[in-house]
Amino acid sequence: MAIHADKDHASRMTPSVGSTYDLPDDAGHFGVYGGMFVPETLMHPLEELRTAYDACRADPNFQTEMDDDLRDYVGRPSPLYHAVRWSRELGGAQIYLKREDLNHTGAHKVNNTIGQALLARRMGKTRIIAETGAGQHGVASATVAARLGLECVVYMGEVDVARQEANVYRMRLLGASVVPVKSGSRTLKDALNEAMRDWVTNIDNTFYIIGTVAGPHPYPMMVRDFQSVIGREARAQMMERTGRLPDALVACVGGGSNAIGLFYPFLDDADVAIYGVEAAGEGIATGHHAAPLCAGRPGVLHGNRTYLMEDDNGQIIETHSISAGLDYPGVGPEHAWLKDSGRARYDAITDDEALAAFHHLTRTEGIIPALESSHALAYAHKLAPTMRPDQIILVNLSGRGDKDMHTVARHDGLVL
Amino acid sequence: MSRIAQRFQQLRESGRTALIPFVTAGDPVPTITVPLMHAMVAAGADLVELGVPFSDPMADGPVIQRATERALAQGVSLTDVLEMVRQFREQDSTTPVVLMGYLNPIEVMGYAAFAQQAQSAGVDGALIVDLPPEEGHDLIALMKAQGLDLVYLLAPTSTESRIKRIGDVASGFVYYVSVKGVTGAGHLNTDAVAAKVAAIKSVIPLPVGVGFGIKDAETAAQLARTADAVIVGSAIVSQMERLAATPQQIPATIADFLAKLRTAIDAVDRSTMPHAESPR
Ligand SMILES: Cc1ncc(COP(=O)(O)O)c(C=O)c1O
After folding, report:
1. Sign of CA pseudo-dihedral A48, A51, A53, A56
2. Please, what's the b/e burial string for A380-401 (b: 16 or more CB within 10 A of its CB; e: otherwise)?
């Protein structure tokens, strides 16, 4: 496949040949966003992490090691699939799906945990910690920890532990300990706080694998780099298949890692429209949503400046989405920058629209998508009919829906 | 000279180590905070650190997290905390008050508004936990313009270059975090702390306070040998938690506890101590 032509690692860490986009700056800023807003206790460990990551970035052996793992363990490259029947039914643009659902562990999350775990090993760390909401990142972390023989502790809000039982069990099977977090709103944001607290306490032997493009520098950059394998592959696959670039990219945005992974290698392609899709929950107007880019404002949380959902006193407020993976009050700082700069557009899809898309794809293509990814699908569903049949939409199918059977069944009035 | 600098000068002249209690403003009820501050001063507190509640206190252990949640359940905002300081100042114009909190509530209020309102309420300085000097230029300038001190944390992991960097912007005093961990953590190694405090003092010409993990009079006394200030938070806040249902008992109980710490600290003879010489 064409992507194997891309063997020079220097080219794979930049969006495209002749690129002009070079964010973040040295201190991790994307315009006014990003940065390192952390307690002094974390400044030195973050500097160490950055030094280690810079060394790996420049080391072809690290890249080879990572490529081998992505191929043999994750199953990359993931296919690019032309959803012919669905496209025809919508009567507009051709829809292609980047099949991250076919990765080992069922989502894009593993691209990042593979990279960070290799880095952890190089740094001589013996223990990894992670935060998780839906449990997908927790599972992906527990998976790589099992494979590398590292101790693994996953922090998960008490509320999420109760609603994602199957993933909790998966993590435990893999040998991880899952610690229910009882503070604050007892969801993903609190799990992230607790993981940070663990990290400052056990800094000597512990590596913190953040699951999305959030957190302090260098995490948003590092996770983006690891996830951008999605966009690099998709770009090459699209060129090979159709001889041209897509007209539009669509991806769901929780913290924003699958989205930036797809978008990043296309940022310099001015003719490619970019759409990020947040969770509108019960509707933006109800306040019960998880759409900081669409309905929040800039602030500082979890080590970076970005758009947040907060009250008038600057307290972070609870979010709602039917998909636990999008249920986060912040968003990666690079998305905040892409929004303000106008390079990407952000919109939101409600629980009901996502569920409809979930059923629709399942019935027309025989693919059961994750509820997170269903937000991107629902947006493509709206976009396609406004475009011509010779145009192309590339949707990131970030994960598969097996983990969501209980949620969807409950919504349909069934108990499994 | 700022109220904080003045206070440390007096302490130095009388050969004493400062005792700095921390409480979360509004915990467990907003009405108790000002009387509690006065009671703590009467029991020997030299400076009061007031926590501004934030929904995501990343650097705090469970005790202060719960205090924060109790305060937030009462709707306590940054504006309310400034109002408490204003009330405190009606009866106490000499004891310095330092706010300790996270950046986001200040972002929402606006940097200029915060600096101006904090000054007019009688606040003397602020320790913004998640604002390292690298990210702080704008707020630092505005606060300095209002005569407010900027207190910074230093950690066991702070390298010499970081200590220097913080020395460039810090004023009032610096706060050495005595353990790798969050507030309220245990296992404090007083020898290691003494060595690091000495290292900090060789770089930064400000008083050095030590905190995180000081639970009793004995540890406080040990640290008084090396530090210019002993900062006690979780040990106070956990007693307040036990009395959350009867808040009117809190000021007297906490005053008793502080009086014991005061006696233990004052029993230490600072004149024999190698690292406690006055800052240059
Ligand atoms: C399948 C899937 N897609 C998307 C997300 C959202 O995360 P991000 O926005 O970082 O891609 C998650 C998070 O759990 C997920 O499991």
Report:
1. negative
2. bbbbbeebeeeebbbbbbbbbb
Q: pLDDT tens digit string along A115-174?
A: 999 999 999 999 999 999 989 999 999 999 999 999 999 999 999 998 888 999 999 999
Using alpha carbons only, give the angle B49, B50, B54 rounded to the nearest 5 degrees: 135
Question: Using a CB-CB distance cutoff of 8 angstroms, which residues of chain A are in contact with residue B166?
Answer: 40
Task: Compute the distance between CA of residue A129 and CA of residue A121 in angstroms, rounded to an integer.
Answer: 13
Domain count, chain B: 1
pTM (predicted TM-score): 0.95
| Cβ–Cβ gap B61/A313 under 8 Å | no
**The residue type at A49:** L
Range of the domain at B78: 3-266
What does the block give as tokens for A292? 């900081």
Residue with tokens 């059961």: A368
Cβ contacts of B182 within 8 Å, gap of 6 or more: A197, A200, A201, B59, B60, B61, B212
Longest dimension (CA), chain A: 57
B274 assigned to some structural domain: no
Q: In Å, how far is A29's CA from the nearest CA of chain B?
A: 10
pLDDT block averages, 10 residues each, chain B of length 280: 96 96 98 98 98 96 96 98 98 98 98 98 98 96 98 95 96 93 80 94 97 91 94 97 98 98 90 47
Q: Which of B39, B65, B40 is nearest to B54 (CA)?
A: B65
Structure tokens at B43: 């029991």
Reply yes or no on whether A398 is catalytic: yes
Neighbours of A352 (CB within 10 A): 15
Counting Cβ atoms within 10 Å, is residue A61 exposed (0-12), middle (13-18) or buried (19+)? exposed
What is the C-alpha to C-alpha distance for residues A356 and A336, in angstroms, rounded to an integer? 28
Q: Which residues line ligand 1 (CB under 6 A)?
A: A 107, 109, 133-134, 136-137, 212, 252-259, 325-326, 370, 372-373, 398-399
* Residue in the structure block whose two tokens are 């650190």: B49
Do A38 and B130 meet the contact criterion of CB atoms below 8 Å apart? Answer: yes
| Residue B277 maps to a domain | no
- DSSP H/E element including A6: none
Residue A23's closest CA among A367, A340, A400, A378?
A340
In the stretch 162-221 of chain B, residues with CB closer than 8 A to chain A read 162, 166, 177, 180-182, 185
Active site residue B49: yes
Residue A382: which residues within 8 A CB-CB, separation 6 or more? none
Q: What is the CATH number of the domain that holds B221?
A: 3.20.20.70
Q: From the CA of B140, how far away is ligand 1's center (Å)?
A: 37
